[in-house]
Amino acid sequence: VERIVTNKMLSAQADRVMALGEWEERWQEDRTGWHQPQVHKMLENNIEKVLAGRSQVKFFFPLCGKALDMKWLADMGHSIVGVEISEKAIKQFFEENNLSYSEEMVPALPGAKLYKSSARNISLYQCDLYNFSSAIEGQFGGIWDRGSLVAINPRDREKYVALITSLMDKDCRYLLDTLLYNPELYKGPPFFVPDEHVQNLFGKSCDIELLHSIDALTDRQKAWGLDFFIENLHLITPKTN
């Protein structure tokens, strides 16, 4: 019965599509309610679980926006690679954090631009996420997925998971933030991604641990017409067999 309910709920958003241009438009118009003006508490509270004693970890930030989490990790000595479609978001990241940066084309990614911090190990690629691959920057020891899996079009999830798992090195620790609510009341994004769905997407190749489940309902979600809004944090690691 649970599976039937989950499938019914997933189908409520299955055909919802946001074009890349719409995301760029939201940045242009400053309609970026998902951006947090501080380091994300879920990352801060679980950083030890992600680092697992490692230093100088290479982190991947899919759909990075201008997340302050990137500078926070870079200041600890880790290196950051992000992918974002909005040039405005990338430039704001560097400018708002007083970081000087360089701009270059990426021969391996036609149409893409690479923005690199001069003083910190931060490289942000302005391109379509699905054009990115391990051929560009190798694999990663850490991934912070906040507002990425929940933002992509639901029909692209298998493609997304194939990309993300191809970017994970054997010791990778991938922190994934998902959201639970009634998708029949709100069309998204952010989209509804239940735990069983995370299991179906990643379970073949990875171990998944639910670290936290918190009530994240605020006036913002109430304005969407929601009466519950749960944020779940998962730690995903490649199976060792």
From TrEMBL:
The keyword DNA damage does not apply. Its main location: cytoplasm. One of its GO terms (cellular component) is cytoplasm. GO terms for molecular function: thiopurine S-methyltransferase activity. It is found in: Cytoplasm. It is an enzyme of class 2 (transferase). Keywords: Cytoplasm, Methyltransferase, S-adenosyl-L-methionine, Transferase. Its EC number is 2.1.1.67. The keyword S-adenosyl-L-methionine applies. GO terms for biological process: methylation. It catalyses: S-adenosyl-L-methionine + a thiopurine = S-adenosyl-L-homocysteine + a thiopurine S-methylether. HAMAP family: Thiopur_methtran (MF_00812). Belongs to the class I-like SAM-binding methyltransferase superfamily. TPMT family. This is thiopurine S-methyltransferase.
